[in-house]
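=== Structure Prediction Worksheet ===
Name of assembly: unnamed complex
Input type: mixed (protein and possibly other molecules)
Chain count: two
Listed entries:
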Amino acid sequence: MIVEVRGLKKVYGSKTGVTAVDGIDLNVADGAIYGLLGPNGAGKTTTISICTTRVLPTAGQVRIAGVDVVAEAPHARQYIGVVPQYNTLDRACTISENIFFHCLFFGFSRPAAKARTAELLEQFHLTERAEAYPAQLSGGLAQRVQIARAISHRPRVLFLDEPSAGLDPQSRIAMWDAVKGLRHQGITVVMTTHYMEEADELCDRVAIIDHGKILVEDTPAALKQSVGAQKVYELHLRDQPGRPELCARLSRIEGVSKAEQTGDGVRVLAHGADGLLSDVVSAASPFGLKDMTITEASLETVFIQLTGRDLRE
Amino acid sequence: MYARAFAGLFLRDLYVLRRELFPFAIRVCMNPLLFLFVFTYVLPHMSGGAAMNPTAKMAGSGGGFGTVLLPGLMAVAIMFSGIAAVALPLAQEFGITREIDDRVMCPLPVWAVAAEKIVFSAMQSVIAACIVFPLAYYIPSVPVQAHVNSWPFLIVVLLLASLVAGALGLTIGTAVKPQQIGLIFGVVVVPITFLGCVYYPWAALKPIPWLQFGVLVNPIVYMSEGLRAGLTPSAHMPDWLILAMLCFFLVFLGWRGIKGFYRRVLG
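=== Predicted Assembly ===
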C-alpha cells in the first residue's frame, strides 16, 4: 500500500474543538486512482492536507511509501506531489521556470531540470505557453501547469484537492485526460471531489466521506450495485400528506426495490423493468404528481441512501 | 539533499531579484538619496554652510551631519530591505496567492524554508548597504569622515545587522494579517527608524535619559551604532554591547519569526 492512513483524527481549535476528521482509515494501492467523495466540509481537504504534511493530525498516523508524514516530513515530501484547490504557481516566474525551479528544489541538476521541464511542457501541451506568466493563464491552463509541476519531481503519489472546482466543462475533461494519463506513468492519484461524475469517471476506488468519517469504500461499480437499483425516480407531489400511502403502494409494484419519502415527494429506486414508468405514474397521479425526474443510479444515490442528504446540501 | 533544496530556493530568489534589479536599486536609493539631499546639501546651503544638526560636533573632528547620517542611513537601508524582502512578499503569499505552499512542499524542514528567507533577505540588505554608502559619502556638502578601524568588526556587524533585519521581516510578515501590512509601516517601521539612533548617535541622547534607555529595546539602534562604530570616528556604544545585542535580537527575532512561520504554514 502506497498510502496508509490509520485512525486519523483532526480537531481544530483547542477550545471550540471542531472535529474535521474523525477516525479515518484508508489504504491506497500502488498505481490506483483513489477518490474521496463527499460534500463540502466533510473533512476531505483536511485529510489530504495531513497526508501532504501541511496540517498536523491530532491523532493517528499516515505513511506515504512507508514514510511517516509527521516524523519524517521532509523525507515524505519527496514522494508527494500536491495540487491544492487554489492556484499556488509562482507569480514571479514563467510557466517553464515554475517547473524548472520546482525540479531544483527537489535536488535535480540544472541540465536534468531543464530536460524534465521540456518533457512535461510537451506532455501537458504547454510548450506554446512556456514563457507566459501564471497571471496570463486561464483557470484550466493554470490547473494543468500545477499538475505538471506537482509531478515534475516524479512523486509516487499525486494528491489533487477538488481538481475540477471552478473549471469549465471543457477544461474539466482535459484535466480528466491528464489524470488518466498519469496512470501509465505509475503515479498513484488520490483526489477529493464533490462531483460524483468525476469520482465515477476517474476513480478505481471511492471512499464516501461525511462528517469526518468514511461511510463506505469500494469500486464505483460495486457502490452503485449496493443501492440495488438501476433507476431513480424522483416524484414531486402536490398532496404531501399522502406520501406514506403512496410509498406503500409503490413498494408493491414489481421492479421497485424501495420507495421513500423526500422533502416534497417520493423517491423510487427500481430495476430497469419495462413498463415500470407508466405503473409509477398511474400510482402517483391520484396524489397530485407535479413533476418527475428519472436518473440512473449513481454515486449520488449511494450518498443519499447513506446520509439522507444531497451531496450539494 | 537539504543543501540542494536550500540552494534551489536561494537560486530561484536570486533569479527573480536579478530580473527586478532596477526597481530594487531605486527602492534602496530613494529614501537615503532624498534625505541626504535635503539635510546635508540643501539645508546647509540655506543656512550658510553650517551643519544644522547639534550632534554633528560629536561626529569627530571636521565631520558634519553627513558623518552621523552615513551609518544611520545604511542601517535604515538594511532594515527596509528586510521588511521589503520578507515581510511584504510573505504577507501576500500567506494572504492572497498562497505561493508559499509550493515552497513548503520542498524536501526541507519548515524552519529551513523560513531560514532561507532570512538569509536571502540578509544578502539584499548587504547589497543595499553597499549602494547607500557611496551616496552617503559623496552627497553631503560637508565632507564625511569615514574610516574603518577594524574590517572584521565591520563585516561582522554588517552581516549580523542584515540577518537581524531579515528576522525582523519574518517576524512581522508572519505576525501581521495580510490586510494590515500597510499599517505596519506607520506603526512599526517609522517609529523604529526615528527612534533608532539613525539621525543622531546614541550618546547624544544623554540629556533625555528615559529616551536613551527606552530606545535600547529597538534593534535598529544596534545596527546604526554598530555601523557608526565600524565606519566613523563618531561617539558610539561599546563594541561588545553592540555585538551582544545584535546576536540577542537575531536569536530572539529568528525564533519568533520561525515560530510564526510554522503557525502560518502548518494547520
